[in-house]
């Protein structure tokens, strides 16, 4: 779809990230509903008849309310607790930035409400991200936020010291693994040179001992 309409890279990634997040929300919703149904089977007949009738005939209402609650919580808590990242945005290297301040809970809630409104209106408010030069949606403009590519390695003033040390440790370990692989590759290609170098080491050690 993105390649057919030739969207900009940021719009393509926003669409793909939103799709990933919707899939995760659907999985969470199914797990929640199935867990509720299994627990309900154990106590269903203890409810009054009217409650039983309501649960049997109007279960779709409960399912829709559960879905909207998970949707709202997902797009509110993930960006707020992870500094502008949802799983979909993190996978595709995107992040929500606030203009001139840290991302607040109210901004995240406003974006979540806008997402819900967009889904019920067939995502029409998202069209502004396509034709606007700054690629801001209505939710971005109302909450004074923007979605942009995340700068990696991680920005120091937005991360804690233990997160930075953890990423430094990962980079150091990856460098050591690369050096080890390079040495093993050289030794496998030139076994004779490796043997000669080892013999020279033994000769030097014997001379030192003498």
Can you describe this structure?
It is a single chain. The protein is mostly helical and 210 residues long. The protein folds into 2 domains: 2-152, no CATH class; 161-209. It has 10 helices and 2 strands; from the N terminus they run H-H-H-H-H-E-H-H-H-E-H-H. Strands 1-2 form a two-stranded antiparallel ribbon.
Name a few traits of the molecule:
mainly alpha, 2 domains, two-stranded antiparallel ribbon, 2 strands, elongated
Give me a quick take on this structure.
With 210 residues, this protein is mainly alpha-helical. 71% of the residues lie in helices and 5% in strands. The chain has a two-stranded antiparallel ribbon with strand order 1-2.
Mean pLDDT: 76
Shape: elongated
What percent of residues adopt helix (DSSP H or I)?
Answer: over 70%
Assess the beta-strand content as a share of residues. under 5%
The strands making up the biggest β-sheet line up spatially as: 1-2
Q: Secondary-structure element order, as H and E?
A: HHHHHEHHHEHH
| SSE-based structural type | mainly alpha
N-C termini distance: 77 Å
Please report the number of helical segments.
10
């Amino acid at each position: 779809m993105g390649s057919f309409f030739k969207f900009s890279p940021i719009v393509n990634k926003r669409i793909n990230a939103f799709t990933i997040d919707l899939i995760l929300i659907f999985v969470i919703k199914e797990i929640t509903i199935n867990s509720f149904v299994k627990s309900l089977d154990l106590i269903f007949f203890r409810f009054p008849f009217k409650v039983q009738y309501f649960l049997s005939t109007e279960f779709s209402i409960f399912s829709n309310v559960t879905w909207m609650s998970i949707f709202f919580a997902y797009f509110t808590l993930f960006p707020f607790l992870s500094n502008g990242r949802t799983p979909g945005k993190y996978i595709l290297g995107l992040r929500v930035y606030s203009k001139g301040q840290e991302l607040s809970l109210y901004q995240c809630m406003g974006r979540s409400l806008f997402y819900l409104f967009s889904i019920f209106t067939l995502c029409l408010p998202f069209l502004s991200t396509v034709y606007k030069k700054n690629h801001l949606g209505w939710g971005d403009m109302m909450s004074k936020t923007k979605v942009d590519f995340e700068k990696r390695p991680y920005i120091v003033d937005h991360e804690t010291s233990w997160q930075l040390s953890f990423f430094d440790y990962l980079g150091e370990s990856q460098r050591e693994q690369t050096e080890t692989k390079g040495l093993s590759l050289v030794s496998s290609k030139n076994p004779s040179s490796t043997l000669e170098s080892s013999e020279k080491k033994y000769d030097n050690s014997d001379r030192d001992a003498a």
